[in-house]
User: What shape does this take?
Amino acid sequence: MAGFKKKASREMPELSTSSLPDLIFTILFFFMMVTTMREVTLKVKFTVPSGTELEKLEHKSDVSFIYVGPPTDNLRGQFGTGTRIQLNDRYADTREVMDFVAQERQGMQDQTKQVISIKADVYTQMGIITDIKEVLRKSYALKLNYSASQRN
Amino acid sequence: MAKKKKKMPGLNTSSTADISFMLLIFFLVTTSMDTDKGLTRRLPPPPENQEKNMVQINERNIFKVNINSIGKIMISGGEKLECTPNDLARLRSLVKDFIAGKPAPGETKGPECSMVNVPGLGPTLCSDKHVISLASDRGTPYAAYFAVQNELVAAYNELRDERAKEKFGRPYEALNDDNKGAIREIYPQKISEAEPVDYTKKFAN
Assistant: This one.
């Protein structure tokens, strides 16, 4: 009897995972496109104000950030709670802003397009911001951006 | 007795997914996706000659906004405002009226306007002489200063938007660069920030 041999219980075919890497790679490339490398570790804590008339910062490579605010929680014991200015990875003085601007400018393709974005805490006193603005004027970095979050 | 040629086994690719996952996670951790937005301002170039900067401006052309060290606002005419949504909206409408030609509070005449031949629009009345003078104290909270700046820019944007809709039938943002320039010429942004005075030096001389 060559007839109908009972087939072994049919197994579910294994899910093909051969396209999984491609999928993940696509997500990877997507993220590489839309995100930017985080350049500095924040040493100051800040909540930016909110506004309605905001503009997007177009060219990330032309933008340099100045952070203003009190030290973060883990650094508070060491540096106190006074408002600090952070340039790159360290606390700085208002006078150092000029060097910072010049240094940032060097790496830019079109130096006239340089934008300085101030990310300052809402409770900062204007005295510090005014000082920074004066230094920026002196160093001819006249395009300024007060970083803020969108509000309706 | 030549050996039978062995077939090359296919490369095992089952771990590629894991590797790319690792890469993905690495990028997720090290990058930030925050889109940076902010209020764009232009600073005046540094003063080269002190005398040159002393320009007399007619009182009627100035709208004063002062913010004190506790974030309270005083405007031309002595009216006091606070940083509440209602008061800020009032500030915005007052500034808007002022730029459009109405007198600032406490003044009898509005800012001077002049006929300018705007490219694309012909001779138009431009509010080119007005100045909004913004002064803040060293102790002013940044939030208050920012809120006021935001309202001032909003006043300009609303006026430009209205004019753009009237002249070109489209909002300001949708115009091309030439038309935007024309509208800008009608309502040029003139926010002057008082230079901080160093009193210690002033009295030393």
Q: What stands out?
A: The interface with chain A takes residues 13-14, 16-17, 19-21, 23-24, 27-28, 30-33, 35-46, 67, 136-143, 145-147, 149-150, 153-154, 157, 196 of chain B (CB under 8 Å). Residues 65 and 75 of chain B are 5 Å apart (CA to CA). The two ends of chain B are 109 Å apart (CA to CA).
